[in-house]
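I hope you will forgive my troubling you with a question about protein structure. Could you please explain, in whatever detail you think fit, how the structure tokens follow from the sequence? Thank you for your consideration; the sequence and its tokens are set out here.
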Amino acid sequence: MIAEVYGSSWCGYCRRAKSLLEARGIEYEEFLVDEDISREELSSKIGKPVLTVPQIFLDGEHIGGYTELAARLGVSG
């Protein structure tokens, strides 16, 4: 499984998402919104406006944010 994490350097949920992926041994690539990719480009990739970060993809599938990642990996909260 490979993940892409689109977030920001100041985002607590982005840090939590990366920590969860690391704890599960899941490789990820991080992209900083407004530095590595614009909000418009990310919105186009997802197919809807980006209102929050992180936005996470697993094996190329957009799953949502931290809450959806935790649920997908069987972690509460």
Remarks:
- The mean pLDDT is 95.
